[in-house]
Structure formats: structure tokens, C-alpha cells
Amino acid sequence: MSAAPLILASTSPQRRAILEQLRIPFRVLAPDYEELPGTSPLERAAGKARSVDGGSEAPVLGVDTEVVFRGELLGKPLDETHAEQMLEALAGETHEVVSGLCLRTPGWEELHTETTRVTFRPLVPRELAHYVGSGEWQGRAGAYAIQGLGVSLVERLEGDFLNVVGLPGTLLVRLLATRFAGAYGFG
Known about the structure:
This protein is of the alpha/beta class.
């Protein structure tokens, strides 16, 4: 049994890479959605998915992820100094990566959140400078990319690794196994 390719309502290269890793057939349609301040990752994921027409069969996937530390949202750093400040604050501490996921067809819609707790190891200034110097922090919420050199900053992870990369893979697989048993190779 095969299914129509999933429609990814995102232009994120990380999300594309995760779907490729999971061998889920997909095509990309850029969402026509304006992210508003003060909205949750779940609201943004739903807005992205709802802005894309999947046609009659293909499920549409919208995802949005944010990094939260001590109740504060950590966005993308503005420059090297800002990146180093973020990483210095996270050093030796635990933060959360929260994703909203919306999977929908014309007949139904699934809305879920996934939270992964990430603990950084204590970091010395030389390590911070090395990571910031790599440039990997650019365009990354929380100033790091766990799928790259950023994994060296992490001491412990509780939850879905792929969620920290940008798409809660375990949650998506579970939903596909339930909604489309066997069609995408799951369930």
C-alpha cells in the first residue's frame, strides 16, 4: 500500500532532511502564513499547514519549533556576541525545545506538541569561542545546531533528538502509523 507524498508546509532544510532520513515521500510547498509574535509553536504549525492546499489525498504537515530557557523564548541570535551570550547562559543548564505539529487532510486534523529537554555541559570560554567561530549558530534558535558540531555542547537529552533538529520524528511516525497504517512504511 502506498500513499500520496506528504506535503511539507515548510522550506526548512532540516525538516526535509528528517523526512528523507525517515524515507517518507514528500514534496515541499512554502506556506503562505505570517508568523505573529506571541503565538505558540502549535498555532504557527497549524497556520502553516492550513495555508497549503494538499489536494484531495495528500496529508499536509506543518511544524514550528522554539527554544525556551527559564520561561523565556530564545530566538535566533543577531550576531556573534548575541550567540555567545545565549550559549553562555545555556552552559551547564537545561532548556526545552518545543515543537507544534499539525498533520491534516480535508477530512481531519491532528494537532500535537512535543517537548525535548536538553542539558548543556558546563562550557569554558575557549569552547564557546570555538563553537561561535564555526558559524553554525547562524539562523538557529538557541544559537546551536544539535545535528552538527552543536552536539558537542550537550550533556544529556530527554526526549526526541529529531525534535531538537526541527521535526518531532517519533510523533510524526506514530501519527502516520495510526492514520495511514502501512502506507508510509509504519504501522
